[in-house]
Amino acid sequence: MPFVIVHTPAGVNLYCGFRHRRLPSGEIDGVLGPLTDFNNISDLVDGFHADAIDSGAIWHKRGQDVTPDTRVDWKLLDNLRTLDTLLQRTGLRKETSHALIGKYVYLHYLRDRGILSPKKLGRWGIEPSSVFGRTATLDGVSAVVARLDEWLNGSVFPLDFRGKYAPKQDHLRYVAGVFAGDEVSEAGDQQLSLDFLAYNFSFIPIETLSVVYEQFLHAPDEPDKPSRGRKIGAYYTPIPVVNLMLAELQDRRLLEKGMRVLDPSCGSGAFLVQCYRRLIEKEFPPGSKPKPAELRELLEGSIFGVDLEDDACNVTELSLILTLLDYVHPPDLEGPRSRFQLPALRGKNIFRADFFENPAADNPPLQKGFDWIVGNPPWKRLNPDKLENDDKPVLKWLRANEKTRPVGGNQAARAFAWELLEYLAPDGEVGFFLPAMTLFEDAASGFRQAFFQHVKVHTVVNFSNLAEVLAGRRFRVPAAAFFYRHRDDAGDGLDEDEFVRTFSPFVANQEPTRPVRAGARNESWSILINASEIRDIPTSQVADGSGLPWKLAAWGSSLDQRLLSKLGRRFLTLRDLERHRKVLISEGLQLRRAPASEEDEEVDLVEEAVGKNKLDVGPLARLRHVFAFPADAIVPVEPDLRFARKGRTQLPLSVCRPPNVIVSAARNFAVYHDDFLVVPARQIGIVSPTGDEDFLKALSLYLSSDFAFYHQFLTSTQFGVQRGLATLNALRRMPFSIESTPRNELVRWSELHSELVQTKPRTIGDTSPAERTPERQLRLAGMGDVDKKLGRLLEELNGLVSESLGLDDGERALIHDLVHVRLALNDGKTGPAAVRPPKVVELRTYAERLKSELDDFMDVQSAKRHQVAVIHDGLSGMVQVDLIRDSAAARKVQVMKADNAAARELERTRQRLRVQRSQWVYFDRNLRIYEGTRTFVFKPMQRFHWTESQAMVDARQIIAETLQGGGVEA
Ligand SMILES: C[S@@+](CC[C@H](N)C(=O)[O-])C[C@H]1O[C@@H](n2cnc3c(N)ncnc32)[C@H](O)[C@@H]1O
Fold first, then answer.
1. Is the CB of 309 under 6 A from ligand 1?
2. HSE-up of 181 (CA within 13 Å, CB side)?
3. CA atoms within 13 A on the CB side of 161
């Protein structure tokens, strides 16, 4: 709950549900106190008016107040983490420490919910002070636990009070004290802190337990060694992701009583808890009072999980039990005839087992098919040379299934994605959270090919652009959710019209959780899907294992697909030139020292490189449009680096010889060079066997063009997802249009090259501290005026390349918009080039392109044309498209500010639509509404929504939807 407005007789206060902070005055700000006093009621009303929500203004004004890491439960976590460390430092075993802390969460929850009331304790003859607070005693706690065991079945976090590893009285007091409000410091001091009193455990989200668990697992057992949590890949799944995934599954098949759900690696139970909640809320709508036994029946009948870790199973069980109790009316547990017991889940619903050791064999509940399988498996690339014991079963599985169920890259998560099919009912549905590289990496192409043919994947949510914000600081690996089912017609091939729906949310569209400052990281507490991010990919396009359709779906559209295949057909590729011996292409030379022992790899001496220079790509990392290497990028080869791996010398060496073109792995430069220069590993060298200088110069320009970057970014499917590197294969696949250019025309290219080598490159992004040396600043100083010239020359360069490729205006716009606008969103960035407000001239270009695309679709004979008007204020814009008789008015597009007199009429329409469909922009920032021959498109005022390529996509969607009959469209 981000905001709470409380009206009291004393006035109106606004609270931020995400803020718990102590002010210097000692008062608590946020949950316990007012954030702002509103004496003036209209301030408050304006800020929270539906309009402010629709337009996103609320997030502009208040976004920075809503930061999950100031939430009260994060404070609790801090204290619990410290507590765990301290308990273990005093000699308590890890398992006992976790059980003790878990037990106290449970006891406090029961007390705060009124289930473990003073009356109840009184009836049992137990003094509350012997259980809660610093006066707690071993006798008191063990007595209450025994009673609870009997009453509710207390198998939750079993704790042995007698054995060898039992906690001592001091441990107990310590924990009880902290739960009663004492604050602990790393040094072990304990002092009363009112902070803890803010916790009412009946309100702390049960999900918080997942975080507690993850923290426990990620505390290293020994310094400098990877923690257990890391080894087994235990990272809890962000709740917005869980909910989005379950909502998607619900759309396919509603979860209801009688259905069975399995999470094969349930961790702390995030998916299972949310499934259980949904089930309860479906069976018992608000207002109905489920009996405890009914809740128990639902849990026992429907919710199942497997995990390798005992602690994970414990936390899942505790979370499920607390969820059950969440819906219980405490007096229902108390009645004289109430014989209710909580279920013992272990071995019946929750199984401690390795999923690859056939847990179904010994556990009958796992033998029947499941209707839903959900989860987030461990993401782990197994290294057969460094195998942990726990990895052996999955590696055995990988080897046994190599042919029929390949995973690629030894990725355990993909083995789960296959193996769970053994547990899926014939009409069951799966929602599974996997590494996004599963879509993109070359290593996984075998997986994609087999998987998309074997199962029916109907939806994929690609979260890779949210990697920076999805899980705050906990992990940053790009993720994707896969939704699939058995193929009814396995073996019969794909349906021709089968498609996979995919969406790839951008951080820039996450209005409520978008970081307020560049470089800041918020943990997402909600995820918005924008209509413009949804694409349908024909399954036939991905069933050959290609990663390209996924890249295009996230970054482009079918128009890019069309352009790339058209150019691929029309021109020879660099690989063709290589085959015709027009060029020689190779990765650089990996120089190394002489082998130290016989076991080291064999090497060849590379005499030719001795005493020569090599390229150092470090100083070039943030430079763009480099046409000559700056002096500091050319350094002598270290004298002892005189060898290269045996047999890997000849070709790499030949591309170091002048004249050559050196292309960077990040594709930020392709420089023509005419001195011997060692091309370092991963960078690429290209030479012409005839030493054709003009051709190589033209090649360096071609490879420095926007088109080349566009091509490389889209076709090196991993580029920009996890590693900022393009592949050699993608370079070889680039269509090359100047090969047949007559000599005399190459002269222009060559002249342009000589002008460009005189310019200074541009520096992008923040320079790292190492780069901010005065010397470097000096070298890059004075770029201002040179830059202008560079701009003009680059325009000419891009013009030459586009011309040689025969690109029309629309195709040029596709390239321009990706390279100069959308790429500023790469890697979760919200670069100004993409998110700044569009200029009027850009709005006009958008409108003109939209109009011309729509008109092109009309029959030439038709007397009708599209009239396009854009009306905008600072935050959002409305496009109105009318199909009218061709006239002077229809031929001109209009762009108006909302307060402009001429815009009043349109503004009234906007108001009317807004009243009719309250609060839509917030839920769908790219909304289209159809009314007869009129279409309205609403968009936020961010540049990337108003590009020419977006106009082309919008036009196609408008045409498709009006042909279908229109209606309100998301
Ligand atoms: C990413 S976590 C699951 C997170 C969980 N969905 C949540 O939000 O809490 C992966 C889990 O897989 C478990 N695991 C790892 N290898 C396993 C195996 N071979 N069989 C079953 N569970 C396994 C780990 O113990 C860990 O709890």
1. yes
2. 9
3. 13
Ordered by where they begin, the domains of the chain are 3-68 (no CATH), 90-202 (no CATH), 239-537 (3.40.50.150), 574-803 (no CATH), 836-969 (no CATH)
| CA–CA gap between residue 877 and residue 953 (Å, rounded) | 17
Q: How many CB atoms lie within 10 A of CB 414?
A: 26
Ligand 1 within 6 A of CB of 233: yes
**Nearest atom, ligand 1, residue 394 CA:** 19
Residue type present at position 288: S
Burial class (CB in 10 A: 0-12, 13-18, 19+), 635: middle
Q: Is the CB of 307 under 6 A from ligand 1?
A: yes
How many Cα atoms within 13 Å fall on the side-chain side of residue 465? 27
User: Which long-range contacts (C-beta less than 8 Å, at least 24 apart) are formed by 197-203?
Assistant: 198/20, 198/28, 198/31, 198/32, 198/72, 198/75, 199/72, 199/76, 199/108, 200/112, 201/105, 201/108, 201/109, 201/111, 201/112, 201/113, 202/109, 202/112, 202/113, 202/114, 203/112
Work out the burial of residue 196: count CB atoms within 10 Å of its CB; fewer than 13 is exposed, 13-18 middle, 19 or more buried.
Answer: middle
- With helix as H, strand as E and coil as C, how does 595-609 read? CCCCCCCCEEECHHH
What are the tens digits of pLDDT across the range 582-628?
A: 999 999 999 999 888 877 888 889 899 899 999 999 999 888 899 99
664: Cβ below 6 Å to ligand 1? no
Question: Rounded to the nearest whole angstrom, what is the distance from the C-alpha of residue 931 to the centroid of ligand 1?
Answer: 50
CA distance 532 to 729: 31
For residue 188, what are its two tokens? 């072990």
Q: Is the CB of 217 under 6 A from ligand 1?
A: no
Sign of the C-alpha dihedral computed for residues 676, 682, 683 and 686 taken in this order: positive
Q: In b/e form, how buried is each residue of 641-667, taking b as 16+ CB within 10 angstroms?
A: bbbbeeebbeebbbbbbebbbbbbbbb
Q: Percent of the chain scored above 70 by pLDDT?
A: 77
Counting from 1 in the atom list of ligand 1, the atom nearest the Cα of 375 is 6
Written as one letter, the residue type at 129 is S
Confidence of residue 581 (pLDDT cuts 50, 70, 90): very high
CA distance 444 to 467: 20
Q: Is 236 in the pocket of ligand 1 (CB under 6 A)?
A: yes
Spatial distance between the Cα atoms of 937 and 966, rounded to a whole number of angstroms: 13
Distance (Å) from CA 149 to ligand 1 centroid? 28
In angstroms, the CA 156 to CA 229 distance is 21
Instruction: Read off the pLDDT of residues 527-567 as tens digits, 9 standing for 90 and up.
Output: 666 666 778 899 999 999 999 999 898 888 889 999 999 99
Distance 266 CA to ligand 1 centre (A): 6
How far does the centroid of ligand 1 lie from the alpha carbon of residue 309, in Å? 8
The tokens of 716 are what?
Answer: 């090196």
Using one digit for the tens of pLDDT, what is the confidence trace for 140-178?
999 999 988 887 766 667 788 888 889 998 889 888 888
Cβ atoms of 564 and 539 closer than 8 Å: no
> 304 C-alpha to center of ligand 1: Å?
14
Q: What is the mean pLDDT of the chain?
A: 82
Ligand 1 mean position, distance from CA 463 (Å) = 20
Does the C-beta of 606 come closer than 6 Å to ligand 1?
no
Q: How far is the CA of 236 from the centre of ligand 1 (A)?
A: 9
Is the minimum distance from the CB of 356 to ligand 1 under 6 angstroms?
A: yes
Residue 276 CA to ligand 1 center (angstroms) comes to 19
376 Cβ inside 6 Å of ligand 1: yes
C-alpha 902 to ligand 1 mean position (Å): 61
Q: Which of 237, 241, 307 to mutate to test the pocket of ligand 1 (most atoms within 8 A of CB)?
A: 307
Distance CA 299, CA 326 (A): 13
